[in-house]
Here is the input.
Amino acid sequence: MIALDIRKSMIDKEREAVSICKQCELLGMARSTLYYTPSMAKDKDLEIMKELDRLYLEDPTRGTRRMSKELKKNGYQAGRYHVRTLMQIMRMKTVYCRPRTTVIDPAKYKYPYLLRNLKIDRSNQVWSLDISYIPMRRGFMYLVAIMDVYSRYILGWSLSNTMEAEWVVALLRTTVLQHGKPEIINSDQGSQFTSDEYVDYVKSLETVKISMDGKGRAIDNVYIERFWRTIKYDKLYLLELKTGHEVWQACEEFIGYYNYRRGHSSLDDKTPEYVYRSVA
Here is the structure.
């Protein structure tokens, strides 16, 4: 087998005749591997970021002030402004306990939230798309996943050490090719999802509607947020992940288990894959 670094160098992103997904398949390489390069940070910051990740899953309503206080209680020294910088790197979005009085900038609030009071009763009706921070021993990565909300089935996922819109669109494009088009795609208002590249691609699907969470709302993207908590506490936090390949392998193992073998109480103890296939 040709070395992974050599196979990665053989990918031609500009070649329109053969998609990146197909090139990866022909080279026997997971597409997510293409986007991975080691991501480094100071050891002190990496320790703080791991603790921030745990604190956020425990209580996402903590803002920078409360996070800084909690870190100090746990023996970490990090001022509020440094915490803010790290939370931005980690893509953490503080959830507000009560309605905000701040007026959202209309130029940045691109699309409305379409799921309020919507009865979700079939597969491919609503897809949820989100990105989460994944800590490593000497770095970090980001995991993007697409979930079918009705069945909780993870339709597609990918890893990267950057959060470029191109990476998100590539996964979405592949997922649509594999599973068809949904009626609605819901995401937050992150820059990847308000980018021209992302919006133009979804609009090119013609029948697909764009939905975006309200800023600071706890329940708008609740299903995939629960998935982040599950994969981290049940798998990723139990391992000392050293390389991008180890992260990829751990995610592949858990998502396979989650989709095909783990029964969900909300699905009458059926697996997401069973529910998705039975009505898709």
About this structure: The longest helix spans residues 244-260. The chain has twelve helices and five strands. Residues 4-34 form one domain.
